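User: Need the bound-state model for manganese (II) ion:
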Amino acid sequence: MNLQLNITPIEKWLPGYKKPVIISGPCSAETERQLLSTAEELAETGIVHLFRAGIWKPRTRPNSFNGVGEKGLGWLRTVKEETGLLVTTEVANQKHVELCLKYGIDVLWIGARTSANPFSVQEIADVLKGTDIPVLVKNPVNPDLELWIGALERINEAGITKIAAVHRGFSSFEKTPFRNTPMWEIPIELKTICPALPVICDPSHIAGSRELIPMISQKAIDLDMNGLMIESHINPKTALSDSSQQITPLQLFKIIDKLIIRESKIRNKTFEDQLEQLRNVIDELDEEVIQNLSVRMDIAERIGEYKKENGVTILQIKRWDEIANKRLNMGLAMGLSEEFIKSLLQLIHKESIMRQTLVMNTPIEKAAITETGGAI
Ligand code: PEP
Ligand code: MN
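Assistant: Bound-state model below.
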């Protein structure tokens, strides 16, 4: 996957930029008083770079609180005048963008439901042409990196170079302790293919509950993310949306204060040498793992040929069950986690079956199987 974006470094457009960037404020603007008092307390902490509040709320069910609409933009303007904080809100269509520009909102963000829809992102991109307002693009609700990249590209192609990605987790069928599963490998991949793109984590929407926010924030910082977007409310229990995940400005201050910020650059020579040695060992081990996997797959293919000659099915459930249990117990005894061994074994099994299937197929069928990664 590749991604070429024309990016203005965040330190050039976000005054006072320092890692981690802290974006905070309520899920929703509810009243002018709630907004102002939250903003005043946040400003007092001295750690907030950008004040957030949703004005138009994308709610799952139609009869929930849908946001205060345009009047909230006036309140945000007051927040800016009275506290000096820069302000940001969510936009989902052309009208939202036009109104935000009219009211002098400093930064826009595109929410997770909107970034999943290329029509909406394009509509927003079209109306942004000719402006240079910074835009934050949240990941789409579904775990699809291409879709996230596509949204970033559409905004960038409209001439917006002040951009950042926001990782807010992904919806999943599986029951997990999170409201939205983090799937850290997705933002890591995004950072890998586009190192210049700032990535900000939104622990509030990943967590869904305030208790998990410190842990997720620390993890994001350990992964060298550029900042955190955390929802805060003057009185979280009374919040009209996302009440269980909001914290007070004071709680925000305490969480950020306790974060352990590690250096991303290596400065100490001895440490550097030792790290280098350990990395060399890892490189060798990884090479061995790959060589062994390659030999293993060649043998699986030979077994496939024997099965073909003898008219035996590829899938031998009993044998696979035995292997899986034996390997699982071995891995557990050697300190590997159950989830890790199970997913690794599943991958290996899938690849083996694909290699054995290939033996039984014509060239056209083989191409279809390889292209879909064995999905058919
Ligand atoms: C929000 O930030 O309040 C919000 C609606 O977020 P998301 O788009 O990530 O669900
Ligand atoms: Mn919210």
